[in-house]
Design brief:
Number of strands: 3
Strand order of the largest sheet: 1-2-3
Shape: elongated
Radius of gyration: 18 Å
């Protein structure tokens, strides 16, 4: 399920129309369920005979970013120097969070330093790739 950025009711309407067209679904979008506020991210899928949406709001991302998860070293696989699909997804999510305005570089640097120390990612280019998202967002 891909996440799409919604900035307005117009974006929400376009998202619904595109989802129905892309999935060859010929039904009316039921109910008045939609985002409670903008901006937000939306992920939509079909579960059985239902269309299900998941909304992620800036406050959800802040809460997640501020939570301190301390994984055990035995549960963390050692990484090589090549990018994985999860690295690519992570870079994409970071880029989206920067564009929405939720993620700020100073907070991200602190969180990244802490994670890097815990996860021993020193030999990977992921850190530089993620930090480059702040520079590319500023033009």
């Amino acid at each position: 399920m891909a996440l799409n950025l919604l900035r307005s009711d117009v974006d929400w309407e376009r998202h619904r129309d595109a989802f129905l067209a892309d999935n060859n679904v010929n039904v009316s979008w039921g109910g008045e369920s939609g985002p409670k506020s903008f901006p937000c991210l939306v992920g939509t899928t079909i579960a059985g005979s239902n269309i299900v949406c998941m909304f992620v709001y800036p406050e959800d991302v802040r809460l997640l970013a501020e939570s301190e998860v301390k994984p055990t070293s035995s549960s963390i696989p050692k990484r090589g120097n090549s990018s994985s699909i999860s690295d690519i997804a992570l870079v994409g999510m970071v880029r989206e969070l920067i564009q929405v305005g939720v993620l700020k570089e100073n907070f991200f640097n602190e969180a990244l330093n802490a994670a890097e120390a815990e996860l021993d990612y020193y030999d990977n280019n992921l850190r530089e790739t993620l930090l480059a998202q702040f520079r590319s967002d500023q033009g």
